Amino acid sequence: MRHLVIVSVLAISVMAAPLAFADDAAMDGSHHFVKDSVITTKVKAKLAEKHLDTLTRIKVDTDANGVVWLSGRAPSQDAVDLASMIARDTDGVTAVHNDIAIAR
User: Fold this and answer.
1) Pick from 60, 79, 57: which is nearest to 68 by CA?
2) Pairing mode of beta strands 95-102, 59-62
3) Which of 8, 60, 67, 69 lies 20 to 30 Å from 54 when distance is taken between CA atoms?
4) Does a structural domain hold residue 15?
5) Does residue 4 carry a pLDDT above 90?
6) Which residues is 63 bridged to in the sheet?
7) CB 33 within 8 A of CB 7
8) pTM for the whole thing?
């Protein structure tokens, strides 16, 4: 009997684990989804490699399908385009949605 209880608790834990990583819809209307943190980390690292302080302030989110969402502010269109290019050229990225605004 004790063995059955332990097995049941473990089975429930394994089945419920994906729910723990799912985001609820944000109250501010921003994009939220089950994330791919590996791709997000790769994109952020590549942005940081460029040693441009403005690129490290860009927010990066990635959904489970490899779609990257960029947001935040950049000083110029060139910086916005560079962030998009870096994200697109990252392994595992299937698409990039660029919502970066140009700071005035």
Assistant:
1) 60
2) unpaired
3) 67
4) no
5) no
6) 35
7) no
8) 0.64
Distance CA 92, CA 26 (A): 25
**The domain that contains 67 carries what CATH number?**
3.30.1340
Q: Which domain holds residue 94?
A: 23-102
Closest C-alpha among 72, 62, 73 to residue 95: 62
Quote the CA–CA distance of 67 and 4 in Å, as a whole number. 41
- Residue 96's Cβ-count burial label (10 Å; 0-12, 13-18, 19+) is buried
Q: Answer left, alpha or beta for residue 98, where phi above 0 means left and psi between -120 and 50 means alpha.
A: beta
Does the residue 18 lie in any domain?
no
φ, ψ dihedrals at 95, nearest 5°: -160, 160
What is the count of structural domains for the chain? 1
pLDDT, one tens digit per residue, over 39-88 is 999 999 999 888 777 777 899 999 989 999 999 999 999 999 999 999 99
